Amino acid sequence: MYKEGACLYRNPLRSKSDVKDWRMEGGGQISFDDHSLHLSHVQDEAHFVFWCPETFPDGIIVTWDFSPIEQPGLCMLFFAAAGIRGEDLFDTSLRKRTGTYPEYHSGDINALHLSYFRRKYPEERAFRTCNLSKSRGFHLAAMGADPLPSPDDADSPYRMKLIKDKGYVHFSINGLPILEWMDDGSTNGPVLTKGKIGFRQMAPMKAVYRDFAVHQAVRR
Fold this sequence. Notes:
The protein has one domain (2-219): Jelly Rolls (Sandwich). Helices cover 4% and strands 54% of the residues. It is built from 2 helices and 15 strands. The relative contact order is 0.30. InterPro entries: ConA-like_dom_sf, DUF1961. It comes from Bacillus subtilis subsp. subtilis.
């Protein structure tokens, strides 16, 4: 249904200079090995979000390589993130955020949340799903089966692909469709459009990221 159009942003995530303008909220630790971005925590329960500084328009395809290294924990992508009155996510009028999840789902920002590696709690590891939620308000929008194995069995990296066009959201891993959703723009508030993208992890998760890119989404 969609193909990649013009490249809006590309980042190999292979060296410290690649993320010099990115913003960390919470207790995240950044390192680089094998020309890849490694994200981990600085202490127990030090959850965090690592934000790309760009504000992206609606109608985008987001891709990145993901490798789980150590669980338990959780990996999530925030997208279409902005203040509830349309402010830039980093506007100083917004409350300071420190990586605590309620700040993101029930604070003064709107965002879509894609939880694609949910292994923090025993019940998540026992029945693995990928979840899409919408905030403000933390509304579960869609669920799909999680095909990713535990880190010990992972054949990494996995290619993640997210399509966001107006109310339509589609997520796949290595070309396998995982979930799809259409926001009606009324049940849980207006359709979210432009905004920022960020990687969230819940400690003690360790994971590796590479080759992050955002393209225009062009209907075939």
